[in-house]
Amino acid sequence: MTQNKEIFLGPSYYRTLLPEGFNMLKDHGYSLIENNTDDAISPQELRDMGHDLHGAVVGMETWDAAGMDAHPNLRILSKCGVGVDKIDLNAAQERGILVSNTPGLNSNAVAEVAIGLIISIFRQLPLSQAATKSGQRTIFNGPELTGKTVGLVGMGSVGAHLVRRLMGFDVTIKVYDPYLALSDAGDSSFQLCDLDTVLGTSDVVSLHAPLTDETHHMINAATLGRFKPGSYLVNTARGGLVDESALRDALTSGNLAGAALDVFETEPVDPNNPLLGLGNVFSTTHLGANSFEAASGVGLANAHAVIDALSGLSPQNLVTSFH
Question: Potential cystine with 65: which of 91, 105, 149, 288 (Cβ 3.0-4.6 Å)?
Answer without folding.
Answer: 91
